C-alpha cells in the first residue's frame, strides 16, 4: 500500500513512525511531501492535504479531540460545533488553541498515533462538561451504536456525573431529541405515575414517545422537510384515525420554546388524552 492509501486508512493523519512500520522509508515520505501528496502538520506527523481540519488542529497543538467534538465525529447526537480538546495535566507541549481544553488524566490511555480520545474518555468528559439532558442524549446515542461496553464502563473510576448518566441512560433509545424530551418529562412521569414508553411501534412505524395508552409525542428533526414530512403527516393521520392523540413538536420548539411545549403536554394529560377509551 502506498503512503496515500496508508494515510487514508489511518483517517488522514498518522505519526511517521507508524508509517515506517508499514515499510515506508524517509525517501518515500520526502517524495510524497515534495509532490504535494502529503504534508507535515507537526514534527513526527504526516497528513493528507484534505485531512479533517479538526484532526489537523489537534495534531498541530499536541492535544486530543474529545467531548462533544469527538462525539460528533463518531456520529453521536450533538448540539454544538464548539471545538473541545483534551490535554494531560501539566502538558508542556500544548500550544495556544481556540478551543475548550479539558485538562485531565485519561481514564483509558490515549493511543500514541491517534489524535482523538477513546470513547470512554469522551463520554466521561461529556458527562462533566455538558448539561445532564444533553449528556444523556449523547450517551444513549453511543449505546445505540454499541460503541462501548456498559459493564466495562462501570469498572472505570468515573466521577459522580458520569456514574449518574451511566445509571440513567437507556440502551436502544431513539434519537437525541427523544432522550432530551423524556428527560424533561421525568418529573411529570413521577408526579402522576404515568407510563412513558419510547420507540413503541404503532400503525406501521415507531413513535418517539407514548404517554399512557393514547398520547403520542413526535419530534421533528432539525431538517424535517419534503418527503419525510409527508410520510410523518400520513402516519400522524393514521394514528389519529386509530384513536391516538398526537402532539408533534419541532426541533426548535424543543430547545427554544420548551415552556410552551411542556404546557401543551401537561394540558393534554390533564384532559385525559393519554387514557384509553372506555369500552
Summarize the structure.
It holds the Pfam family DUF559. Helices cover 46% and strands 14% of the residues. The protein has 279 residues and is an alpha/beta fold.
Structural features, described:
The structure is a single chain. This protein is α/β, with parallel strands linked by helices and 279 residues long. It folds into three domains: 3-51, Orthogonal Bundle (Arc Repressor Mutant, subunit A), CATH 1.10.10; 59-168, no CATH class; 176-270, VSR Endonuclease (Endonuclease, Chain A). Helices cover 46% and strands 14% of the residues. It contains 14 helices and nine strands. It has helices at residues 3-9, 16-21, 26-34, 53-61, 67-73, 119-129, 132-144, 150-154, 160-168, 176-184, 186-192, 226-241, 251-256, 258-270, and strands at 13-15, 45-47, 64-65, 84-87, 100-103, 196-202, 205-211, 215-219, 245-249. The strands form three sheets. A four-stranded mixed β-sheet has the order 6-7-8-9, sandwiched between helices. Strands 3-4-5 form a three-stranded mixed β-sheet. Strand 6 (196-202) and strand 7 (205-211) form a beta hairpin. Helix 5 crosses helix 6, helix 6 packs antiparallel against helix 7 (132-144) and helix 7 (132-144) packs across helix 9 (160-168). The radius of gyration is 23 Å and the shape is elongated. The mean pLDDT is 88. Pfam families: DUF559.
Amino acid at each position: 500500500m502506498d503512503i496515500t492509501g496508508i494515510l487514508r486508512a489511518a483517517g488522514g493523519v498518522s505519526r511517521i513512525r507508524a508509517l515506517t512500520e508499514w515499510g515506508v522509508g524517509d525517501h518515500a515520505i520526502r517524495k510524497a511531501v515534495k509532490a504535494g501528496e502529503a504534508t507535515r502538520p507537526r514534527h513526527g506527523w504526516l497528513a493528507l492535504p484534505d485531512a479533517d481540519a479538526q484532526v489537523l488542529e489537534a495534531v498541530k497543538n499536541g492535544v486530543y479531540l474529545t467531548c462533544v467534538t469527538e462525539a460528533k465525529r463518531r456520529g453521536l447526537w450533538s448540539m454544538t460545533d464548539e471545538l473541545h480538546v483534551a490535554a494531560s495535566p501539566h502538558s508542556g507541549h500544548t500550544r495556544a488553541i481556540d478551543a475548550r481544553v479539558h485538562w485531565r488524566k485519561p481514564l483509558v490511555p490515549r493511543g500514541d498515533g491517534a489524535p482523538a480520545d477513546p470513547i470512554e474518555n469522551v463520554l466521561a468528559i461529556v458527562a462533566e462538561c455538558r448539561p445532564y439532558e444533553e449528556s444523556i442524549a449523547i450517551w444513549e446515542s453511543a449505546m445505540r451504536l454499541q460503541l462501548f461496553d456498559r459493564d466495562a464502563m462501570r469498572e472505570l473510576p468515573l466521577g459522580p456525573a458520569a456514574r449518574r448518566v451511566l445509571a440513567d441512560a437507556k440502551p436502544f433509545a431513539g434519537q437525541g431529541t427523544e432522550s432530551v424530551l423524556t428527560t424533561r418529562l421525568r418529573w411529570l412521569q413521577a408526579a402522576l405515575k404515568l407510563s412513558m414508553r419510547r420507540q413503541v411501534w404503532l400503525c406501521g412505524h415507531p413513535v418517539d414517545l407514548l404517554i399512557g395508552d393514547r398520547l403520542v409525542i413526535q419530534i421533528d428533526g432539525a431538517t424535517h422537510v419534503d418527503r419525510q414530512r409527508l410520510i410523518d403527516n400520513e402516519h400522524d393521520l393514521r394514528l389519529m384515525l386509530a384513536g391516538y392523540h398526537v402532539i408533534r413538536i419541532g426541533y426548535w420548539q424543543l430547545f427554544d420554546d420548551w415552556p410552551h411545549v411542556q404546557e401543551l403536554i401537561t394540558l393534554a394529560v390533564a384532559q385525559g388524552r393519554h387514557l384509553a377509551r372506555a369500552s
